Give the backbone structure.
Amino acid sequence: MGSRLYAGLSFEEAVRKYAQNVSSACLMRLQNYADAEDCFQNTFLKLYKSSPEFHSENHLKAWLLRVAINECKNCIRDSRRQLPLDFAVDQPAPSAEDDVDLSWALLQLEGDYREVVYLYYVERMKIKEIAEILGKNPNTIKTLLSRGREKLKKIYGGESR
């Protein structure tokens, strides 16, 4: 690989640093490991080929997540299918004694809610950043986040903590 830097990181460092973020976003969106792996690879391939300029590591992370989500949308559109993880829907909710498993709960949410809740709570992104990545109005993101929280409460059968 060349000596090109991405917000001060080599390509290899950028892949290592953001691999988990990109793969989680792809898996949450697609709910299919094979398709998620393809989108993951396409995301980093686009980074390598396009070599955009980044102002900071946050800018790089946001760009990678935006590209990953767009890759997932293309995958869904191209295949005209979205394979759910059936086992996740059939599993009982975690008991109060168990640690809360956010990934289990996220898989129970519909796509838009899952995406927004994931980016907000797992990736710890701000509403404005999520709106930019998803190409939506910040107020729409707030609404999706609020409704997503309500759906999570129902999934867990109670009030939020």
Residues 81-100 have pLDDT under 50 and may be disordered. The CA atoms of residues 7 and 54 lie 5 Å apart. The chain has two domains: 1-83, 85-161. The chain is about 70% helix and 0% strand.
